Amino acid sequence: MHNEAAIKKSGFENSTYDVVLRNIVDHVENDNKRVFIKDIAYHIVSPIHTPVTIASSLRQYDTKPPDTSISNPAVVPSSVLSRFQFTFLIRDPRTAISSLYRCTVPPLNEKTGMHMFLTSEIGYREMRLLVDYLYEDDAQRKEQVCLVDADDLLDNPAGIVKAFCERVSLPFSEDMLKWGSDEDQARAKKAFAKYYGYHEDAIESTGLKPRPHPGKHYGSTEEEDEKWRSKYGEEGARKIREVVDASIADYEYLKQFALKASPK
After folding, report:
1. Lowest-confidence range among 51-55, 184-188, 189-193, 215-219?
2. What is the C-alpha separation between 58 and 166, in angstroms, rounded?
């Protein structure tokens, strides 16, 4: 939702896609390092049922002729997309949607400042469109387009992280699975201060360990609905169910691309 006051307060009111792109490229060229960026697919994919238009600040880069049967769904030209290594993290809608809804109702919404449950911010369909395009685009390094399922990561952190490292040509270390120094915690809290209320569990964590009982158990539709009703009431459960049902097919489609853990 567009909020002019919030945009001005952020300090990024004059930012454009090109400003952000140049900032990323500067880090790569000046520091000679791989730059990791976390973002959400729907931020660069045109809204569903609207014409796809390249962002005006990026049209100067739109020189690459299409070489795929699938149209680019993004506001970013293919010539720019092809410069990035993409990794997608997916989560089962039955946990992801209820978790997002929790951020929009009391008491947590007092921290997040998010008081509306916006279905436009769910993003499974946008991610599916972008993944399909990247796999079809001849300029992409298909073998390096990654997709990780959160359940797989929680069941086998070492195996999935190792598989990811192999895919993107990074040396794997067990140290990747643990953190928690005062310096790390301070940096994480500062980086995510804007998203207060959303990431406390992750920020306060000190590592990734396999969950005690591998394989997330999802109950029947009736059991799920009853659980959501007990937490969020009839209206909340109805909203969650509608979005889950609308998202599950896209999630199941994306899951076929998920990385498999490296053999031990």
Report:
1. 215-219
2. 32
User: Which residues does 89 contact at the CB level (< 8 Å), separation at least 6?
Assistant: 147, 148, 150, 153
- Exposure of 57 by Cβ count < 10 A (0-12 exposed, 13-18 middle, 19+ buried)? middle
**Nearest by Cα to 153 from 19, 260, 38, 3:** 260
CB atoms within 10 A of CB 256: 7
* 176 and 119 Cβ atoms separated by less than 8 Å: no
Among 145, 168, 196, which residue's Cα sits nearest to residue 35? 168
Q: Which two tokens stand for residue 62?
A: 């739109």
Run of H or E residues at 149 = strand 146-149
The maximal CA–CA distance of the chain, rounded, in angstroms, is 55
CB 247 within 8 A of CB 122: yes
Give 207-218 as a DSSP string.
B----SS-S---
The pLDDT tens digits of the residues spanning 165-208 come to 998 889 999 999 998 888 888 888 888 877 778 888 888 888 99
Instruction: Tell me the average pLDDT of the chain.
Output: 87
Cis peptide preceding 51, ω within 30 of 0: no
Burial 206-228 (b: 16+ CB within 10 A, else e): eebeeeeeeeeeeeeeeebbeeb
146-149 and 87-90 beta bridge pairing: parallel
